[in-house]
Every structure is written in C-alpha cells, then in structure tokens.
Amino acid sequence: MRCFEHRGTGSAKFWWVSRDGAVVTVRFGRAGTAGQTRVKELADEAAAIAHVEGLASEKVAKGYVEVAAGAAAPVPGPVVSGPDVPAGGATDEPVVPRDEDVLVLPAQWTRKVQPRRGGRVGGSLPRLAGAVAKAEALMEAKRPERAEVLAAPRSDGELVAAAEGFLDGSRVTPLGAAAAVVASTHACEHREFGQLAVLADGWIAAHGLTFATRAVAEAAGLDVRRRGYSSPDKQENLRRVTPADRGGRWSFDPWLPLAERVRARLAVADDDGYEQARQALAGYRSTVQRTITTYLMPTESPWADEDCGADLYRIELVGFAVSTPEQWDRLAGKIDAADLSLRGGLLATLLDAVGPAVTPHLIGILNNRNAYTDQRRTVIGALALIPTDEAFGALLLQADDKPAAAGLSEAMQRFPVRALRLLGTAAADPAGNRGPAAELLRRHVTANPEVAGAALPSLPEVVRWQVEPILASLSTVPQTPAGSLHPLLVTPPWTRARAVAAPVVVTGLTAPDVPRLCWAPGEREALVPQFVEPGPEDAAGLERWEQEAAKLREGRMSHAADEEKFFVDAPRSLALELLPGWRPTSFWSPGWTLPRLLLRFGADAIPVVVRRNRQRGSLDVYGPLLLPAEGAEVAALMADWLDRLKAVRWIAVSWLRRHPQAAARDLVPAAVGPVGAERRAAEQALRVLVAAGHADVVRAAAADHGTAAASAVEPLLSADAAEAVPARLPDLPPWIDDAGALTPVLSRDRRHALPPEAVRHLCTMLAMSRLGLPYPGLAAVRETLDPVALAEFGWSLFTAWESAGFPPKQSWVLEALALIGDDDTVRRLSPVVRAWPGVGGHARATIGLDVLYAIGSELALIHLHAISRKVRFEALKYGADSRVRAVAAELGLTSDQLADRLVPDFGLNDRNTLTLDYGPRRFVVTFDEQLKPLVMDEDGRRRKELPRPGANDDEALATAAYRRFSALKKDLRSVAADQVRRLEEAMVTRRRWTGAEFRRLLVGHPLMVHLARRLVWVTYRADGAVGTAFRVAEDGSLADVDDKAFTLADDDVAGVAHPVDLEADLSGWTALFLDYEILQPFPQLHRPVWRLTAEQAAQRTLPEFVGVAVPVDRLMKLERRGWWGRSVPMDAGIQTTMECDLPGPGGLDFPLDPGISVNDVYDQSGQIFRDARLTGVENFAALDPVIVSELLCDLHYLVDGGSLR
After folding, report:
1. Rounded to the nearest 5°, which phi and psi values hold at 1128?
2. What's the topology of domain 2-67?
3. Of these four, 11, 14, 635, 945, which has the most CB atoms within 10 Å of its CB?
4. What's the average model confidence in pLDDT over 663-686?
5. 1195 vs 1204: CA distance, rounded Å
6. What keywords sit in the KW lines (predicted)?
C-alpha cells in the first residue's frame, strides 16, 4: 500500500492505493473519516503496476505528499507507523474514531529511526557486491590526508604501524582498519558522511561482519588531535581516546556512518553471525569504547542498564539503545537539546523505543527559552506526535510562541478529540491560557464539525457547554440573501465602473498662523512638575549671559547642549529676543529642553517644538508636546503625520479631535489647493474631523474662506464619500477565504450570515481604513450587522493573522479591531499588547495601544491606563501614558481624574449588588472586603460558585448571565489590583480629592467604597497642613478616631493618610481597625516610618548609603515600583547610575560601580553606590516627610533585604 496526504488551507485529505495482482484499490476522503473506496481490475499485473504509478504521479502533481505505508514490524511499546492523518472537516461519511492513545510515527520520522534487531529494521541495505572496490577507491582519494597524519611525529607509533600493515596487506587487523579509516577521513565535511558507510560494507565483504564490528569499536576509541589550527606548522596526530576525554557532543566523527551501517547489518544478521559479533564486542566493555558496544547491540539490555547510570565517554550513544522507560529515566539527565537535534535519529529512535516516556524531558527543553530555535523546533515536532495530554498541554501553554503554535496545530489535527477536550478545559479555566484556547477551540470545531459532533457525548460537561454553541452556530445560520445585504456588500465601488470627478482647485487661500497654547486642567503643571523660572541675575551674571548671547548670534557656540541651556536658563527677555531666530539642526536633550521652553515662552516656543518634530526619531516622545498647541504650522505637521507615519498617527488624530475649529480653519486652504501630497494629507485630516462628528465645523471653516472653498470641500462631507477609493486596492491574504479560520458575520437580527464574497468586501473596507479615518461607507454597513458577531469576526481575523506570523502587510487586521471590536476584544488584546515587546513585537504593541485608544470605551481606557502604570517595558508604558494624558486633556481632566472616572461599576445597583437572571431562578452577586465576588441564591444562601445553566433554565437568559459573570470575574481581578495600587500610590504621592469628588468617586462608587472603608483618610488645610483623620463606616457615613460622626464639606480636600500624617493618633486608629477586624488592602497603619535627624535633613547627600554593596535583583524589584530607573546606557551598554525620580520636586542619583550591563542585567554580583546626591531641591528638609520616609524605606530594603513594604 502507498499512502498520500494533502494539507491545504481547508481540511486535510488522504489518498491510499494498494494492488493485489491486477486489482487496484483506491481509498480517499477527508482525513479522520472512513472515506470512499474504488476498485478497478486491469488487464494484467503489469498494467496494474503502471496504473498505480500513474495515479501516484497525478497526486504528487496536485500537492499530495507520500507518507509511511502500512503497519511496521513489531516493536516494543504502543508505536506504529502509518499515514500521518489529521482530523478533517465536513463529509457525508460517518466519522470513524481513531485511537488517539497510540503513537504513530510519520514517514519522515520512521526514516530516521535507527534499526534494532527484532524491531524496526528500516529499508533494504545495499548489496555487498562491489563494496570492496568502492571502499578502496574512497581510501585512495583520501591518501593525501592520511599520509600527513601517519607521518606526523606526534602520532601514536602503534597505531601508525597497524594502519600501514592494513593498507599494504602485511598485517590485517580490526585496529589497523580503524586507524587507516580514522586517519583518512578525519577532515571530512559533514556533507561527505553519506559516502563513508561503504567503508564498513568493504570490511564486511572482505573480512566478515565480526571483523567490521570490531573495527568500528576500535575506531570509536581513536581520534585525530589537531594542534595549531591556523599556524604554518600545524599538526594532526593520530591518537587513542582516554577516559579523561569528554565529548563529541558537538562533533561529527567520521566513524559514525560506519557504526550506523554495521548496526543495520547486525539487525538482520543470522543468529550465528550476531552471536560471534556479540562475543567480540564483549571484550570492549571495560574500555573507553564501552558506549559503542551498547549502541551497536541495543538488544543487549543489560549493557544498556549498566551504561545508563554511568558517566561515560560518548554517553549520548547509549540513547540509541534505550528500550524501557526506566532506562530512559536514568539516562535523560545526561542528554541535552543539542544531542536530540544534532544526533541523526536519536529523538526518532527514542520515540520508537520508549514513546511518551520522553515527554517530561522534551517539555523541559521546550520551556527553556534560551534553547536554540532549531532545538526547540525538533522538540516541538516530537511533542506534536506524542498521544498524551501532557504533551498537548505543554504545546498549548506555549501557544503564543510561533514554532510551538505550529506544533500545536499539528497536534490538533493528529488528535482531534483530545484537542476538543483539552482546548475546552483550558478555555474554561480562569487560571489557564483561556484566550488562545477559546479561539483555537472555535477554529477546531468549525473545521471539524463531524468529529466534534461524534465526540460530543464523551466530552466533559465543561467542554460540551462550549462546543455545543459553536456547532449550533454552524448549522443554523443560512447565508444572507443578496437582496437583504447592504449595497456596499454586493457591488462596492471598486467592483464597478464609476465616474471620477476632477478635484476642484481653489488657489490663493492662506491660513492665518495664530499660534497659541490651550492647556487642559493640570496639563501644564504635569509637563515639568515644580518648574521655577530662573531668578534675577546680578550685574556679573547679566554680563556673562550677554557674552553667551553673542556666541549664539555669531554661531560660535560649540555644542547643542550649550544652546539649549541658554534658552532654558538665560534671562527671559534676552532668551525671548533670540528665540525666533534659533534654528537648531539637532538637539542634545530635547526631552529636557522642549517642555521647559513651552513653560517659559508659551506660544513663542511652538515653532521650536515643531522644528524638532520635523526631524527624525522619537516623534512618539516629543510629538505629544504639541497636543495643546494650535497654529497653521502645527496643523500642517499633524496632517502630514496622519498621512505618512503610522507610529504617530494617534497623536494627529488626538490633536484633530481636540482642536476641530483650529484644524478646520488651518487645513481648508491646503485641502482645496493644488493636487499633491499636501492636499491629500489635508483632505484626510478633514475626513477625520467629519468621522468624529465635526462636519458642521468643517463647513463653517470652509465658508470663512469663501464660496469657492465651501463648494470644494463639500465632496468630503457628502454621502458620496464612499465612492472615493484608493487607486490601488489592498491585497487580501489567502486565509480570508478559509471558512474554518473566521467566524461568521451575522446580520443585525442574527438570522443570517454574510456570504463569502460579502465577507471579502467587508475585509477590503477594513483594509482601506486607518486609525481615526475609517472607510466612509463602513459605518452604514456596520449598522446592518450584529455587533457581537462582528467583534468576534474581528478577533478571528486577528488570530488568523497571528497564525500566519503577523505579516506586516496585513497589519490592518490589528487596526480593524478598533473599528469593529468591543470590550471582549479589549480583554483579549490587552495581555497580548503587554507581552509583545518581550518577543520582538514592539511595533505591533504600539499599534495595539492605538487600537485601545481608538476603541475608547471605559474598559479600553482602563486597560490603557493600567499599561501606563504597570508594565515592564518602559517604551510601552510611556506610549500608554501619553495616550491616557491625551484622552484626559480632551475631556478637560488630569490623568488621575480620568482614572477615577474609569473605574467600572460592573452593573451593581444602589445596594452594591448585581442580580443574574436565569429565568426560573435568580442569583445575587456582591463583593467581600477583598473585592472577590460572592454568589447567593434568592434565599440568601451562599454558593461556592455560580452554577452553570441547567435544563430547566431559560437558555438565552441563563447563558447571557453566566457569561456576564465570567467576564465580571476576569475584569474584577485586574481592576481590583489596579485600584489598590492606585490608592497606595495616592498615599505616597500626596494625591488629593475634593469632598465632592470623595463622595461621588469613592464612597459613592459600588466598587471603590469597599476599598475606601478599609483605609484611614485625612483632610488637608489650605496651607498643606494635616487636618482631621477619618474613616468610612459600613453605612457610608464618616467617623473620626473616636468613632464620632465627621462631616466632609464639598470644598474640603482629603487624601489617603500616611502614618506620618497620623502621629499621636496612629495607635488609636490601629486599635480601632483591630477592633472592627478591618483588613487593609495594602500596608498603611503598620507601614514603617523613617525619619532623618535635623543634621541629616540639612544635607544634600546620604553618607550612610555611600560605598554600600547592593544586589542587582533588589534594584530591579525597586525599579518596578515606579520611582526608580536606570540612566541611559553609555559605552559598552553600561548604565552607570540609578535615578530616583521622587514625587514632586527633587530626585536622587546613585552612581554605580561597576555599573549595570544592559546585555545581561542579572549577571552582576552586586553594585556599589559611589554617592547619593539630591537634585532639584536645596536639601532633604525641602522634601515632604512622607517622601523622605518612603525613600529611606526603599534604601534600607536595598541594603538589608527583607520585605519591600
């Protein structure tokens, strides 16, 4: 029988052909099914043979691949060979279950299995006739290499004599044969190894199998030692291997092909010949060649037992002789990833011999991200073959890794029912890899509905509950009739001929360039906290600055840093005089200079900031500085960014939404001007304004420029805007047409699904869209479709793009999530965005931030804010923070105020409870003091978990309620942790709320009130002094330390109390909380307090911390806290300073010795603080006592260890 398989973009197929005399039988169908059978009788056997060959050639031409045929010879363990048949899709034939607990090695693996007597013996061996002549010819060709080795003065004399005796025929011995071959072939390239096995055949043909066996054993004990690789007098000396020699793991000794050939001959030798060879090898068991004896005779199990536990030369050879799991357990620790990937057939031989017993070792290599890619791929390929939950689960846990994902896909095809069970279990596990598992399960069921349907009764309930709705969606949704589709989904503009009107050009218009800054609340103050204008200069100081100004006018300043310092520190009138003429070609420290220029000179500094942002590099860092700015120059820059630069497109969109009137006024002249890049950019910017609901603003601005301008911009505002399509349509990827890859797009009433051609049109619209600039017809199309199904379709697009390896040309798929995604999209995307920078995906992560920003829902902004506060990649954190600040500015809020308003209430009512309706029964959800959800039935009895919908429940209501609760639990975990962190940060940074905000955003919030009750709060007077401490009682009222009622006025200011604030009342509050058994969300009342003496507070340094050694891991832990960071890498990537950026004014610098290498952060024994310098303030007395306490606590942690808080 010959077996072939085909794996295309759809379901896998098989095709088998067998011949019995003149009768040819063909069996074919979808993989995993019984298929169909056709029988044909030919005229004679020769005709049947020719017919089979013809059919096979046709299949190969159509993309089929031949796999192993039939069953193998008996081998130990549940291992068979045969066609590698993956699970298939739809068919009219009944599904025939396959045994998913049997290891089936595909043909490409069985070819690598080394032969074993009584087991798998491989293909036929070459005939021995003519082998002697071929061997002699090969040895003659290697004469020059051999002569050099044998003549070397350091070569072993006994070995040289034995080799010469064998070559001239005067003394033919196995040692002489081995020495001659090793000397001849030591310099062979690995590509030549395939030719060397004929030398073993020559020995067998001339001297017999036992002689060849001994010769291989002798060769395994010889080596050619090279001395002076590149020197003119290099020598290559023939020598014996000694017990002190290690290795060979990374070498490819030329005797290995001979050993493989002799092992193959021994596997099929007659009993007498085998026994003679065994007795000959027994004599080598006490020598350094011991492992080669075990390799050559894997049936000698006692030899393998003895060697598995020993530390031997070439120990990896014993792996080829292992035959039991117990032997492998003893040997596994001595076999590394290199052995499995470099040694030909070792892993295949192990799988054949002991099967799934190798799984734990393979998983260890898989989980080692330091392993080489080819090593991991070899292991992944093996795990995809192993029929166990352990192997499949290991691949599933690595589903975010591209090679592992490919292996997981193979395992899903090979073990379809196991895939259903394990994917379904993982998708339902809150602690598991739920996101990938749920999507993989959907795709698996969609591609294999018959397999899923047949397996459904045997699946666990938790899996059935997920599989059934997927199957139901496949079988109950007919395609939408063409007459019911939106016209743009039937005949969009790009499918038909259409008249393209010539653009109307209006020349002579100009935009009034009126630069100004429009600061949002708190935005100016946050730009450079505690910024202070330089004080007045004395006469000498003024003279010095005049000299510096003269240098600047005459172009004599030697460094860009000197120019920047001049404009930041020089007297304002002098600096302002020279500012308009300053044209720097580069900046030394724009992140420090530009914000200070905006604060010093206001709108007069806008041209300088624009100039820096017209230069290349770090536009995502310096571009947000222009968000409060207006002016024609700013508007032109933003339009250009929108058109050309994906990385900063979000800045342009944010600016346009924030300044619609100014943008329209300044961009209309270019939008109706001469055709070109400037007009295209301006037109797109105006379309963003229209998409954001500012069409009337654009009309009014155009009218201000005259009637002609008003008429020229009208096409941008009309319904015909959908007719405008790019000259070149985007190419859609092939997986768009894979029915199993994408979820159906349902009509608004969920009764029909879009047909394939309409799906392609929808994808074309998404591919043409940009951030903030969707295809004009997309909104109308979206109104006809179910939003939940559309969001699911968007995510399936994303996972298909992920499976394809994230090709950059299809990055529109990621941006499309902003157009059709929902809160479930946010929940899935956010952890992916957090992880991408760690796997080389920073560019994708940046687009992911844009998507969260563009979705703009409360949940999207919550996740964006969380990324801005807690993620280990600084660039990602900064990008998220910039977007959060932009949203806050649009709403007239600070970032903290926005975060307060983004805390979800999860649908809780006035009693802080949520009712889940199952129809005949209802459940009530509330929270405990740790913000964990509690479920009670209608009688008030506590339930451990919300029950799954049952047969008597209303299916629609119960399913929706259960899913709502599942989403709530998922969101609550991240939201609760984020709010606890925010409140602790508020305590340390001295955050304030007004009395009105406190009642509305904290006490009045159904979630935050649980946290507010567990903390002590304090009011602050107008001069910043501490007022009264209070708490939130169970009924929402306020009380002081004596439990007396306390009133907080609307205009009072309150914050989270630090122990420094409480002083004498600290013990009273501690006793009160103990009495009421109130558990605090973070250390507050028991927080350690550190103080400086008056003498220490008057200084700018901390001498007690100078010269101390600090472990690097503690520095890294503090860095994650938020204040601490490392300086910019200097030469050789060394970061020489730890910088503590304190809340409010001031900071602390700690020069390090020897410094931290960015190439290997944790490979440092320790760092020594060479100094501890205060910056930004006069001395420590100028700092808030709370900041001093927190700083000292951090420093004592660095020095003494222990717990951080």
Report:
1. -60, 135
2. q64v53_bacfr protein fold (2.20.140)
3. 635
4. 94
5. 10
6. DNA-binding
